[in-house]
Amino acid sequence: MLQSKIKHFRVSKIIVSLAVCIVLAALSVLFGNVSSIRIGPYLKIGLGSLPNRAVDFLFGPVAGAVFGAGMNSIKYALSPDGPFFPGFMLSAVAASAIYGTLLYGRRVRIGYVIISCVLVKLLVNCGLNTLWLSMLYGKPFAVLFPVRALKNLAELPADSALLYGMLKMLEPARKRNTAK
């Protein structure tokens, strides 16, 4: 009897988690297509990654990394934006691993949010993504880096504030989900 209830609880929790991920995936696609502004082939500004960060926060770095890789492929299949390059999938996995490691299982604190945003912007956006763009388009890394670094520096306060606000709204839901 008890084992049956435990099994039912685990299955229910998996179904709820999958449903949440599906809704967040739909939001990610919607935000990625509706709220994104492309500035040439090297710069893109948008809110498409916020649902990915919600998955990192709610389910951790491993689930976030899998979700990030999947969303990278789905978004490209639905709306190709230049040539497909697997390095960007690696970047999505790395970003989710960083956010998930720093934010999962912790109370939402502005310090963790800022540190995670700085690390992702520095290592992933300015580092890996600039390398991938350099490889794809044949432009020297040193030419692309300053513009991308300036863009990421300018976005840092707004991105941190948006992420902090969203995570504060999600914190009660995560507490309810983990308290059961």
Could you explain how this protein is built, in words?
The chain has 180 residues and is mainly alpha-helical. The chain is 81% helix and 3% strand. The protein has six helices and two strands; from the N terminus they run αββααααα. The protein has helices at residues 2-34, 50-59, 61-78, 86-103, 110-137, 141-179; strands at residues 37-39, 43-45. The chain has a two-stranded antiparallel ribbon with strand order 1-2. Helix 1 (2-34) crosses helix 3 (61-78) and helix 3 (61-78) packs antiparallel against helix 4 (86-103). The model has no long low-confidence stretch (mean pLDDT 88).
Which features characterize this protein?
single chain, 180 residues, mainly alpha, two-stranded antiparallel ribbon, 6 helices, globular
Topology summary:
Elements lengths: L1 H33 L2 E3 L3 E3 L4 H10 L1 H18 L7 H18 L6 H28 L3 H39 L1
Antiparallel strand pairs: 1-2
Helix pairs in contact: 1-2, 1-3, 2-3, 2-4, 2-6, 3-4, 4-5, 5-6
SSE-based structural type? mainly alpha
The major beta sheet can be summarized as: 2 strands, antiparallel
Fraction of helical residues: over 70%
Total strands: 2
Measured on Cα atoms, how large is the radius of gyration?
17 Å
Gap from first CA to last CA:
18 Å
- General shape: globular
Give a quick precis of the structure.
Helix content is 81%, strand content 3%. It is mainly alpha-helical.
